[in-house]
Specification:
Blueprint (H helix, E strand, L loop, with lengths): L1 E8 L21 E4 L20 E5 L9 E11 L3 E10 L5 E10 L6 E13 L12 E4 L7 E5 L2 E6 L5 E4 L4 E14 L6 E10 L4 E13 L2 H20 L4
Antiparallel strand pairs: 1-14, 2-6, 3-4, 4-5, 5-14, 6-13, 7-12, 7-14, 8-11, 8-13, 9-10, 9-13
């Protein structure tokens, strides 16, 4: 049983997962929040679907009322198994550097007292306007203060970070520079996923420029030791029955 979250900005992503924590039960669709703004499924152009049905969302050029940034394009696929894949492009529209706080959250139904987690992040920063910022860079991506760029969360609590402070990536005029390409796990945590798993990504981007990244958080439910003993005992019993009643 597996839960996987993937948040991708201008980056191709892979299909995310297998039937997971209580996939047969109703689980609400995931949500994307950017700097406190959560675009509705209607605004994202999502196909009409029931709460337990697959749906996809595609579109271009939307943003909050402030106009501080633009989602220039996206293609998001939602599956309550759950599976989440997304293609997004985001641009800083301000004349000054802007900090982005993005969270992709997936509600879950608890099943196991332990989970195994793994994850990764990598991307690029691109100069989109050919101008130098106050730091003398055409394009610049940094982490915000002492906050890690990548934060994997279970039930709202961070359980793993990547790209801790300090981080700095710059690109030349109309150029791009990659960053990240780091990961963790698999690691077993002595805790369940009771309500949600989430990817929280925080970075500061130079004015007018683009950031791109792929971020993955993978959670697998770990059966209790007693469950494993019962399973192994059942398998032994089946072997014994097979030996008692050989094939004709």
């Amino acid at each position: 049983m597996r839960l996987r979250l993937l948040l991708s900005v201008v980056a191709a992503t892979a299909a995310l997962g297998l039937p997971t924590l209580a996939s047969a039960n109703h689980v609400d669709p995931p949500s994307l929040t950017i700097n406190g703004w959560s675009p509705s499924l209607t605004l994202l152009g999502c196909e009409p679907a029931g709460p337990d049905e697959q749906s996809s969302c595609t579109g271009s050029n939307i943003g909050p009322g402030s106009g501080n940034y633009t989602l220039t394009s996206w293609d998001v696929y939602l599956d309550p198994d759950p599976t989440v894949t997304g293609f997004l492009a985001i641009q800083n529209n301000l004349g000054v550097a802007q900090t982005f706080n993005l969270t992709f959250l997936l509600p879950v139904i608890p099943q196991a007292p332990q989970v195994q987690v793994s994850g990764s992040i990598g991307g690029s920063v691109t100069d989109a306007n050919g101008t130098v910022d106050i730091n003398g860079n055409y394009a610049r991506l940094t982490n915000f203060g002492t906050t890690s760029i990548y934060n994997a969360q279970i039930d709202g609590v961070t359980v793993q970070t990547l790209l801790d402070n300090p981080q700095l990536v710059t690109a030349g005029q109309f150029g791009s520079q990659t960053w990240g390409g780091v990961g963790f796990g698999p690691t077993v945590l002595n805790q369940p996923a009771n309500a949600s798993i989430a990817i929280n990504v925080i970075f500061t981007l130079s004015p007018g420029d683009l950031a791109s990244f792929t971020s993955v958080f993978d959670v697998i439910a770990v059966p209790e030791p007693t469950t494993l003993l019962l399973l192994s005992g059942g398998l032994v019993g089946l072997v014994g029955i097979g030996r008692r009643y050989p094939r004709a």
